[in-house]
Amino acid sequence: MVDEAKSGATPLEGDGKRILMILGTPKTDSFCHALAEAYSNGARGEGHVVRQLKLGEIHFDPILRDGYSQGQALEPDLLEAQRQIHWAEHLVFVYPVWWGGVPALLKGFFDRTFLPGFAFKYRNRSQLWDKLLSGRTADLLVTLDTPPWYFRWIYGAPAHRQMTRTILGFSGIKTRRLAEFAPVRPSTEEQRQGWLRRAERLGVRA
Questions:
Q1: CATH 3.10.20.880 fits 2-204, yes or no
Q2: Which domain of life is it from (predicted)?
Q3: How crowded is residue 110: how many other Cβ atoms within 10 Å of its Cβ?
Q4: What is the pTM of this model?
């Protein structure tokens, strides 16, 4: 399900960017949702068109059953998601880090949609590949319960490397900004309000 602006009317596409926000948590209500709304409000205030794709509200099998050896029919929601990714100039991914990586739902979304012929294409008899989503940029808004310094220097930031390099970068999408909001669990209301203002500023600079 792709949400347009909350005003009830589809925004006109003019000079603003076409932005697709992908909310990569299975939860129906979380701090990620608040960050997504703050960023969207900031971007829309600058005239950008923002659409939201909430993975927790769409229907698809997140398991790529046979890898690439056999075709697996895409559900209607995934076909629509691919159309929205093609429409977008700029992607915004909002998600928590769980067990050092992205949530299984978000990883399953990539497994099922970022397919050969859509996100990349291997070249015959070559170790090189074509990046089929080139020309797009991305912002990542990431929540963690781990302090950012510990996640980076002790754990090696595996979720960040996976997203920026082996998924988005592999497909030609250039990560422009990666914003961490952490640690969430012990945070105060004052801290969270500050993070929401920061997310809105990121949207303004989309």
A1: no
A2: Bacteria
A3: 21
A4: 0.92
> Token digits for 127?
């170790």
Rounded Cα gap, residues 16 and 23, in angstroms: 21
Q: What is the 3-state secondary structure (H, E, C) of 120-164?
A: EEECCCCCCEEECCCCCEEEEEEECCCCHHHHHHCCCCHHHHHHH
**Residues 41-87 pLDDT 10s:** 999 999 999 999 999 999 999 999 999 888 899 999 999 999 999 99
For the chain, the domains span 2-204
Q: pLDDT digit string (tens) for 24-36?
A: 999 999 999 999 9
Instruction: Check if the beta carbon of residue 81 is closer than 8 Å to that of residue 52.
Output: no
At 179 the three-state DSSP class reads strand
**Is the CA virtual torsion 175, 181, 21, 193 positive or negative?**
negative
Tens of pLDDT along 107-121? 999 999 999 999 999
For residue 31, the tally of other CB atoms under 10 A from its CB is 18
Instruction: Find out whether 163 and 157 touch, Cβ atoms under 8 Å.
Output: no
